[in-house]
Amino acid sequence: MEIEKALIALSTECPDLGLKRADRHGMPEITVSLESFPQVMKTLRALGFDMLSDVVGIDRMPRPVRFDVIYLLMAMEDFSRLAVKVEVAQDREVPSVSGIWNSANWGEREVFDLLGIGFSGHPDLRRILMWENFEGHPLRKDFPLEGKDFDKPFDTETIKDYF
Amino acid sequence: MTDLLIIPIIKMLVIFGVCLFFVAYTTWIERKALGHFQLRYGPMRVGYHGLLQPLADAVKNFFKEEVVPDNADRAVFLMAPVISISFAVMLLAVIPFGPAMTIFGKRIDLYLANPSIGILFILGLATIGSYGTILGGWSSGNKYGYMGGLRASAMIISYELSLAFAVLSIIMVTGSFSLVDMVAAQQHFWDWNIFREPVAFLVFMISGIAELNRTPFDMPEAESELCCGYNIEYSSMKFSLFFLAEYTHLFVFASLVTTLFLGGWHGPVLPGLVWFFVKTFAVIFVCIWIRATIPRLRYDKVMKLEWKFLLPVALANVIATGVVVALLG
Amino acid sequence: MSESKTVTLNMGPHHPATHGVLRVVLELDGETIVNATPVIGYLHRGIEKICESRTYQQILPLTDRLDYSAASANNLGYCVAVEKLLGIEVPKRAQYLRVIMAEFARIMGHHLWLGTHALDIGAMTVIFYAFRDREMIMAMNEEIAGYRLTPSFIRIGGVAYEATDDFIAKVRKFVAWFPKALEGYHQLLTDNKIWTTRTMNIGKISAEEAINHGLTGPSLRGSGVAYDVRKAFPYSSYGDFDFKIPIGENGDVYDRYLVRMEEFKQSIAIIAQAIENLPSGPVMTDNPLVASPSQPEVQTDISALIRRFMVNAKGTPVPSGELYSAVEGAKGELGFYLVGDGSEQPYRLKIRSSCFYLASALPRLLVGHMVADAIAIIGSLDVVLGEIDR
Question: What's this model's pTM, rounded to 2 decimal places?
Fold first, then answer.
């Protein structure tokens, strides 16, 4: 699919998306505002981006709007990729797209778990790689590399299970 | 006095001793044969080519810690392997191993008992023995064990039917329930029941392997699905009793195939006893071969195979045998 | 009246058929699965966090530990991503050697899959035949890289060593021999009636659903989608080779099996082409920021000594920028989202794990099947927990 055509179609569908464009070494990337994000994603799905490859969360710590969430989309028709970036402040939530792509279910759970970014409307927002009552979010830049309790013995009694 | 008490006791000790020795070495043969099927050697370290491995395993299991899970039904849990092994060993009593011998001027029959209902005795006790499996799986307080036990009960009840029908056609051909009479009726190579009743032989082999819970019908102890199923919580001697019972059943099954279909101890040149064990171990080897080659069937397909295929075939075979026997007088 | 009640069966994390430490909580009605919840994280080592404090070269051995059954393919994916950000070109000979290693890794991964998948379904002999051949590849890995399972042979800017004549001879021998072994696997399984009844129409997933769940690799191709990163976005000279993308029709366990069996053949064809057309030349780029100077140079030239020290101890500064680069791992699209900030350590390295999304499709695939099928389905997706948990 012609990315240019898709973007033109996108801007006619959602006129107030505040589009910023960048080229990431061959892969086009668009930055959209949090408000227009659900509409953009729905439109992109309708335009043929039928696979959500991955959800990437990045902590840009000193920045006031702290997090980047990047959705890597691909159109299986001609294998063209598109990255959609939203910038999220620490107290904001990203509207979940797991209703559009099933793969967003676990992708967003991982970002929630490791970076602590909330996703509104997610059907099953639980921790996925860390255990349920783990404190903190390991991939945030202010989380110490050696862990918060590296000098304490691992206490199996306090680990809470999902079931 | 000697005839009534001492000779039977000696015979009992000898037969059980020899048979349990063979059963132990069946495990060695299985491991060795599987190993060579799978491009490896099997046991090699204990003794020459691992010949002492069964002994080493027994010693190891004997000294291991007895573990009874907290949520197990203790009494049943401990009883299950005992049921399993005792009924398995009892089966050995009626199997005719060879022709009568004369030792110190006395005629000695190479079987412990020759009840006129020998084959029914075996079918009955083998089914009771499966209670060990069922109770063991149920009492471990483990869901895998429980599912293994459930599968075992369903499968053993089902396959018992076709097994019995396969045997029934042999009984009709022989005209007797006694295993000794059955062997006597297959004196010549062309009299062997495998040629007279090939369908019954196939049905007996398939349902027998299913009764033994061996691949491709090892539902109750499917390693990959139920992680060993009914004996998942068993350890040390309790486990080895289950293990031993399983191999005793295999041994008895193989000797039954020999007795019912392959002419028992009859054979040229070699003594009858040797022929019996050669045939028995050939059958055991076929079972091992099947295990090394074939994937496992799914539980519901196993049931379908029994009720929709094996049982009708066995029934039809019984009817056909009946008609032929009646017509030939 | 009787009321139907379900049983919760906790399968894993130490269940023999969940291939590592995957845990699936099954809700059973009899033996039929009504609900399945995968629980992961038992092998979570925080590789992405560790990467943020390691130099780019130090990260390389960590990538071996992602999909440890096909380690070289992970190395390749990571190196391609870093090289793109650095903007360096890798010599042609190194690219071909990389292709050979990556395809060997794919064959190794598929060997592990074949053996364990067959073992799960009850055919216990296949694993030994598969591992006999896997052992040969391991011996070649040892020959060229010094390590058997985790070679770390592919380095940023090229490959670690020149290929020895012995290695090339061994590869040629293996290429000539392997089709016979493959025939043996087929004989054991492909037309076996029990195997086909166990695998056909089990775990079916349509192409649209597979795409929607983020499935990639052989599991997606089993559903009939010809998506292969090697063809769609050629990297490391994959465009030079002539190979096919096998696809299935029904998207069931059997089709995924057939696709992987065909991939064995295609991989060996790629290796044969690469080893026959192996170009001559250097195996490492001459970019001074990346390449460590050669031993004679170091012993005669002080500046080379300093440069070696800088490359090895301080690392390679990588320009700031973001990119996503994907390769075809043994399990599917293995992507690296790399954020560089001009320093010697990445600002953020997100690993797009194919197995993570394969595992996320498990609830969809398992529901409605029996416990015995659950094993077959998990086996057919070929998940490796090192890559799921990272």
Answer: 0.86
CA angle B188, B189, B192 (to 5 degrees): 90
Please, are residues C290 and C157 in contact by the beta-carbon 8 Å criterion? Answer: yes
Q: What residues have CB less than 8 Å from A156, skipping those under 6 apart?
A: none
Those residues with Cβ within 8 angstroms of residue A149's Cβ, 6 or more apart along the chain or in another chain: none
Asked if C357 lies within 8 A of A59 by C-beta distance, the reply is no
Nearest chain C Cα to B36, which residue? C125
Min Cα distance B35 → chain C (Å) is 9
Q: What would the two tokens of residue C344 be?
A: 């010697």
For chain A, the chains sharing at least 3 beta-carbon pairs closer than 8 angstroms are C
In residues, how long is chain A? 163
Q: Please, which residues have CB within 8 angstroms of residue C112's CB and are 6 or more apart in sequence?
A: C69, C130, C134
Determine contact: B216 vs chain C, CB below 8 A.
Answer: yes
CA atoms within 13 A on the CB side of B57: 17
How many CB atoms lie under 10 A from the CB of residue A158? 8
Strand partners, C35: C27
Identify which of C96, C87, C99 has the alpha carbon closest to the alpha carbon of residue C287.
C87
Question: ipTM of this model?
Answer: 0.86
Q: What is the pLDDT along chain B (329 residues), one digit of tens a residue?
A: 666 777 778 878 888 888 888 888 888 888 888 888 888 888 888 888 888 888 888 888 888 888 888 888 888 888 888 888 888 888 888 888 777 777 777 777 777 777 777 788 888 888 888 888 888 888 888 888 888 888 888 888 888 888 888 888 888 888 888 888 788 778 777 778 787 888 888 888 888 888 887 878 777 666 667 767 777 788 888 888 888 888 888 888 898 888 888 887 777 877 778 888 888 889 989 988 888 888 888 888 888 888 888 889 988 988 988 888 888 86
Q: What is the CA radius of gyration of chain A?
A: 18
Find the largest Cα–Cα distance for chain A: 58
Chain B residues touching residue C194 (CB < 8 angstroms): 216, 294-297
Residue located via tokens 């393919």? C73
Alpha helices in B4-52 (DSSP H): 7-37
Please state which CATH number belongs to domain A3-140.
3.30.460.80
Cβ separation of B294 and C194 shorter than 8 Å?
yes
Compute, in degrees rounded to 10, the torsion defined by CA atoms A131, A137, A138, A141.
180
* Domain range summary for chain A, segments of one domain joined by +: 3-140
The two three-digit tokens of residue B135, written as one number:
């109770």
Q: Residues 6 or more apart from B47 whose CB is under 8 A from it?
A: B53
* CB distance C386 to C62 below 8 Å: no
